[in-house]
Write a structure and sequence with these properties.
It is built from 2 helices and 2 strands; from the N terminus they run E-E-H-H. With 89 residues, the protein is α+β, with helices and mostly antiparallel strands.
Amino acid sequence: MTKHYILHLDPDARYEWDRCVLRDPITAERPDLAQLIAQTVGDQNGSYLISVRLEVDVLEHSPLPEKPSEHLSEPSMPAPLPQLEELVA
């Protein structure tokens, strides 16, 4: 069985559960790997000793966007507007 997922890694994520996320590319749901294995063995009652081989092929890689700098630059001031007297003259 071949399944495709999107793996999102962000070690700087605010919450621990967002640092490593595996999602279905169409539904964006997190896969239930135990359910996938149960479907493979036939959903029959009982306990199973199983062996699972995990083979990962990276099909595409998109780096995370750069985080904005924590240092704020000085706001630029707009050029002063001409005084009303200068416009009348």
